[in-house]
Design brief:
- This protein folds into two domains: 2-146, Chitinase A, domain 3; 186-305, Chitinase A, domain 3 (Roll).
- A hairpin with a 2-residue loop joins strand 3 (50-60) and strand 4.
- The chain is built from six helices and 14 strands.
- By secondary structure, the protein is an alpha+beta fold.
- The strands form two sheets. Strands 1, 2, 3, 4, 5, 6 and 7 form a seven-stranded antiparallel β-sheet that branches. Strands 8, 9, 10, 11, 12, 13 and 14 form a seven-stranded antiparallel β-sheet that branches.
- Helices cover 21% and strands 29% of the residues.
Length: 321
């Protein structure tokens, strides 16, 4: 309910410096909201369907409800038609990119829209006579088609940057794995992706194919031999001893596990050696796994079913130490 009335302040998005205006001189009203434009830049005002990005700082007295500056990026949403008193979005049709304004919303206005059975769930600052003051700055106003195009371009750029970093990291990891194999007298097979594996027990039946659902026991280790997760040893992981069940090839596992399992059969026991680009890459899923860590998974395929699960489980994150 509150997110409908004041989606930005409650969700923690906010703006500019707080001017703390106590006088309502020059303020205008719309949908139970009072606002005053401080800077009116030239440009087209936002209309329904536009994607609006903004910065803001929202406060009740000295209590800060949201601050996009602290978050490091502006808030934003597709602008919808305001139908309720106190709806923060009602201000944006009067603003364009570059504009800034002070917005004041009386808690009394909001309280009138709250059903009696939800009153007990309100935050302590939501009281009669209180006022939410929002210092708002509009960063951009774009048609959704333009916004989506820019977002897709940014995503493509990010994906390319990730691929480039993975390509740089792969030979480093490969050298470390080869040194590890030589030191420990391990003869591992290598796939075209850079995954290494050894099979201790071949299993029986047909090789696992994409779309089949497997049940798997596993223990994950870093290259120095420290176990970070397991559904075999409860002292290591936090997932119990139930088998991990997932559809193969559905991208629910980290890439090296997804690929490695498809090399096995029901009953197989194997060890998968994952270069970091096939594991978590530069991300760190827990303090036990550093960025760009090479991972080793000891796996056993306990069951294989032809039908694919609609909702498979994802690879559990390592337990926090």
């Amino acid at each position: 309910m509150l997110t409908r009335i004041l989606p930005i302040a409650i969700l923690g998005v906010a703006l500019i410096s707080n001017t703390g205006c106590n006088s309502n001189s020059g303020f205008k009203k719309v949908h139970g909201i009072e606002y005053k434009i401080i800077k009116d830049a030239p440009g087209k005002n936002a209309t329904k369907g536009d994607f609006v990005e903004f910065n803001l700082i929202a406060k009740v007295d000295t209590i800060e409800l949201g601050n996009t500056y602290k978050q490091g990026k502006p808030g934003g949403f597709p602008l919808q038609e305001s139908k309720n008193a106190g709806d923060f979005q009602a201000v944006f049709p009067f603003l364009s990119a570059g504009d800034s304004a002070i917005v004041e919303i009386s808690c009394d206005t909001i309280l009138k829209t709250i059903p009696p059975d939800q009153m007990q769930h309100l935050p302590p600052w939501m009281k009669k006579g209180k006022k939410i003051v929002i210092n708002l700055s509009v960063v951009s106003v774009k048609p959704m088609a333009e916004y989506n195009k820019e977002r897709e371009a940014k995503m493509a750029q990010m994906q390319q940057e990730m691929k480039d970093k993975a390509a740089q990291q792969m030979p480093i990891d490969d050298k470390m794995l080869q040194d590890y194999f030589a030191k420990n007298n391990i003869k591992a097979q290598k796939t075209s992706s850079g995954l290494y594996y050894t099979v201790q027990k071949p299993g029986s039946g047909a090789q696992i194919t994409q779309g089949e659902t497997v049940s798997m026991k596993y223990t994950g280790k870093t290259l120095d031999g420290k176990a970070f997760d397991s559904n075999v040893d409860t002292a290591i992981g936090h997932h119990g001893t139930d088998a991990l069940v997932f559809p193969v090839g559905a991208h629910q596992m980290i890439p090296g596990v997804d690929e490695g399992v498809a090399l096995l059969k029901k009953g197989s026991k194997a060890t998968l050696y994952l270069p970091s680009p096939l594991a978590y890459g530069p991300q760190s899923p827990s303090p036990a796994v550093a960025p760009n860590s090479i991972l080793i998974f000891e796996v056993e395929i306990t069951d294989v079913k032809a039908e694919s699960m609609q909702k498979g489980m994802q690879m559990p994150k390592p337990a926090k130490k």
